[in-house]
UniProtKB/TrEMBL annotation:
It comes from the Bacteria. Gene3D superfamilies: N-(1-d-carboxylethyl)-l-norvaline Dehydrogenase, domain 2 (1.10.1040.10), NAD(P)-binding Rossmann-like Domain (3.40.50.720). GO terms for molecular function: NAD binding; NADP binding; oxidoreductase activity, acting on the CH-OH group of donors, NAD or NADP as acceptor. Residues 152-269 form the 3-hydroxyisobutyrate dehydrogenase-like NAD-binding domain. This is NAD(P)-dependent oxidoreductase. It holds the Pfam family NAD_binding_11. Residues 1-149 form the 6-phosphogluconate dehydrogenase NADP-binding domain.
Length: 283
């Protein structure tokens, strides 16, 4: 994701330096024609764009060895496109402000393909003035941008979105399996669902694109979705609101670490649901 975003920005005319903790990843970026630097040797920049697996990685990049908080010139903007813990994001946003920097959380959807084509969706959490300042960059990266509130808000809504996506994968798989057992072809079932109120991005995109095709190459792993679900559950617990359905979805995604494995494409969560509900019948 991060590499594709960097290459998209370069193609749009921005001066971009890519970085990664792994030398092999930096070598791949360099082979694609991107200037690269080690994390502790980043050049001064107006914007530092982060795309990392977890909030712990975001914190490490910002605060350690020596960290962007110390490297960045005053007035620079930190844009975090990761799917991060909102509480950590709000803490880091305060530290960014104290360091004379600006903050914007901008978690994305659209996968590696969207990053490569500049067609991502972005949920923005930060000040309006900060968004306006980096809007040319955001426009080059994304097809749709939604400002949902102050720092951390983008990550709150991203967790809500991924919770619904995770739930829709399970419920759509059960609906398709039920229809298949009753003699309705999965493609026909999906066409019917997509003409009615039961449709979702999962039924309209994920199922035809990755599940029924058996390609399972969306670029987003089961492990990352499991992480996001845990973050959503933890956020709800910190707010003191009981969300039993969310916990059910979390439990379902963690029920079997081998089916699917963390490294599998996240759409594979449908495979055991379909197989179990249809008693092994071919879909």
């Amino acid at each position: 994701m991060g590499g594709n975003m960097a290459l998209t920005l370069k193609a749009a005319g921005f001066a971009v330096t890519g970085s990664d903790v792994f030398e092999q990843a930096r070598a791949r970026l360099a082979a694609d024609g991107l200037a690269v630097a080690a994390p502790n040797a980043l050049p001064a920049s107006d914007v530092y764009l982060l795309s990392l697996p977890t909030s712990a990685h975001v914190r490490e990049v910002l605060e350690h060895s020596p960290g962007i908080f110390k490297l960045a010139p005053k007035g620079s903007v930190i844009v975090d496109t990761s799917t991060s813990d909102p509480a950590v994001s709000r803490e880091l946003a305060k530290k960014a402000l104290a360091a004379g920097l600006e903050w914007l959380d901008a978690p994305v959807s659209g996968g590696p393909k969207g990053a490569a084509s500049g067609k991502l969706g972005m949920l923005l959490g930060g000040e309006t003035a900060t968004i306006e300042r980096v809007m040319p960059m955001l426009e080059a990266m994304s097809a749709k941008r939604t400002h949902v509130g102050g720092p951390g808000s983008g990550h709150v809504v991203k967790l809500a979105n991924n919770y619904l996506c995770a739930a829709h994968l399970l419920t759509t798989a059960e609906a398709v399996a039920m229809a298949a057992k009753a003699g309705v072809e999965p493609a026909a079932c999906l066409a019917g669902l997509n003409s009615g109120s039961g449709r979702s991005a999962v039924s309209e995109v994920n199922f035809p694109e990755w599940v029924l095709s058996e390609r399972f190459d969306s670029g987003f792993t089961t492990g990352l979705m499991r992480k996001d679900l845990r973050l959503a559950r933890d956020a709800a617990e910190q707010l003191g609101i009981p969300l039993p359905l969310l916990q059910t979805v979390v439990d379902a995604w963690h029920a079997n670490a081998d089916q699917p494995t963390d490294s599998d494409d996240f759409n594979h969560i449908t495979t055991p649901v379909l197989a179990r509900a249809t008693h092994g019948d071919t879909l």
